[in-house]
Amino acid sequence: MTLKNSIQETLKEALKRQRRAEVATLRLLLSEIKNAEIAQQKPADDNKVLDVVAKEVKRRRESIEAFKQGNRSDLVAQEEAELAVLMSYLPEQMSQEKIMAAARQVIDAVGAKGPSDRGRVMSQLMPQLKGKADGRAVSEIVSELLAAS
Fold this sequence. Notes:
This protein has 149 residues and is mainly α. It folds into two domains: 3-87, Uncharacterised protein YqeY/AIM41, N-terminal domain (Hypothetical Protein Yqey, Chain: A, domain1); 96-148, Arc Repressor Mutant, subunit A. Helix content is 78%, strand content 0%. The chain has helices at 3-17, 20-40, 46-69, 73-87, 96-110, 118-129, 135-148. α2 packs across α3, α5 packs across α6 and α5 (96-110) crosses α7 (135-148). 20% of the residues are buried.
């Protein structure tokens, strides 16, 4: 079963059980997947669906931060509930230690010497960690490792 089909089945189940927050989140996600399919003019494969899910997760995290700064705890709770639904479709997130190990491997492979090589390292590392780690966290770790070298 493809990831998109899994999302559709979960939506049907959420509709039966009348879980409004989950239904709204899944409908929005399926809409974004459909938009991606229209943009690329072909059905989305699992990798493209993961891209869309990751993009939506990033949006939710940014919204949560903005709402926290605005003291809107009601909206923070809503966004966190949506984030939890979306996170269930991403692969298990990597620990900081695993990200560091992967970053060190790429740094060694690329022969990076300092912060100026950050772009080369990130371009090699992000495809490996796609969906498994937050891009901002990976960027921070790479910057720390390159600054130390």
